[in-house]
Specification:
Largest sheet of chain C: 6 strands, mixed
Largest sheet of chain B: 3 strands, mixed
Structural class of chain B: mainly alpha
Distance between the termini of chain B: 25 Å
Shape of chain B: globular
Helix content of chain C: 10-25%
Order of helices and strands of chain C: HHEEEEEEEEE
Oligomer: heterotrimer
Radius of gyration of chain B: 18 Å
Chains: A mainly beta (109), B mainly alpha (251), C alpha+beta (148)
Strand content of chain B: 5-15%
Strand content of chain C: 35-45%
Shape of chain C: globular
Radius of gyration of chain C: 17 Å
Number of helices of chain B: 11
Largest interface: A-C, 32 and 33 residues
Distance between the termini of chain C: 7 Å
Structural class of chain C: alpha+beta
Number of helices of chain C: 2
Amino acid sequence: MSLAIARVSMPAEARRGAVIDIKAIIRHPMETGYRPDSMGRRIPRHIIEQFWVTYGGTEVFGMDLTQGVAANPFFAFSILATETAELVFTWRDDRGEVFTVTKHLTVTE
Amino acid sequence: MKRLTIAALLVIAATAHGEARTSGTELLSDALRAQQIDEAANPGMLWVAEGETLWQAPAGSANSSCASCHGAAAESMRGVAARYPQVDSRSGILLNLEARISRCRTLNQGAEAFAFESDALLALTAFVARQSLGMPIGVAIDGPAAPFYAEGEAFFHRRQGQLNLSCAQCHDDNVGRRLRGDTISHATATGYPVYRLEWQSLGSLQRRLRACSLGVRARQFDYGAREYLSLELYLAKRSEGLAIETPAVRR
Amino acid sequence: MTTRRGAIIATLGVSVFGLPRATIATPQMRDEAIAAITSGAPVGDGRVTLTIPGIAENGLSVYTTVAVDSPMTAADHVRAIHIIAEQNPIARLVTFRLGPRAGAAKVSTNIRLAASQHVTALAELSDGSFWRDAKPVVVTLAACVDGG
């Protein structure tokens, strides 16, 4: 597990059955593998390939990324508030590095 | 931290031409402006977050952190970025915010200097500048700052390079007109370090000035050059009254 | 990148990513990418709304939102949303995997566009049907060649 410079923005509390908006962003070059460096050599591809969210241990949202996603990738999506539990946000890049952020959601009646 | 208000964005800087100067933010598309204002979507905030961590991290032979002397940044750094660049009273050198932070790091913390454009220096600079969000820029150009300001003003108005262009010819005489896909701004540097889509990264004002020099095919000065520092002071005076927006998002 | 190379790039029409135009995707690759996802099933127009600027400020980051009209229940929901380009080195840019626990079928991200082109949003529903929306985007170069 590597140290992520990542931010997840979501409410700490929600009513059961509410749809909550989540925004997630992580620092990553998403290097395409097409760009030449100053010496003309190809800079190797280095991208985040997958992002997923588990809620109380179950995966509720996921993404498959390519170099067609911008650097420092930003995602906005939603989750149905069902139970008080932890949400774990995980990014995995093509070098096998994994970054996570954990958030707690309190669900009221 | 309060969001940048419409009122703050509308604070105007008076010009010699008699028209109000504005921030480049006004020239952004709605989508890009929304991205800048939304802390959760603004990629520059990733560096501000890193800066917040660095602020607390002990470093150097003194094993002290920024917080050890300066306490909570939200209080001690409030308004600081709005007064830079300024002349260091002890040495007589003109310092921008990056230079002040680097100086503190080496002289007071006894740590290794940050490299220009390193993530760490960008992060700390963005974090410190963020503490002045919404506050009006106001720099001193009298006393020891006067010769630097005069140099910066002369640079801005001097024709340079293969295209024989001065900054003023675009950024005073042709503001609002289109140059290929861009609209020419007033060159008010209110949001630096800035997240520039072209860089895919946060970058300093000097990085942008070097790109400008290259763009008009003029000589590019090194990072930390007196020419750019003096120009930064002139640009800050041009931006007087405009609100700090760090980290801004630009094309 | 020097300004001279920048001038050459501008005149030869090389894409933002620095590739000669011959190696970037075509509408055919887009259609193949869509067929690979749908296994040849028909794609309906509608139910999907792709929101993307008509003129991109910079091809390196184009804010894109896809919304699908769906109740997002266990019986009737969006399984996946794909964003597909026709003038990029690869056609399928990103896939969002949803389900009833997403609550709503509205997603956003920033994509990279190598050149002016049509962008397609393809939605896969739980009943096996596919729906699409497509919009044209003009991608411009920055005014002054940056060079870093």
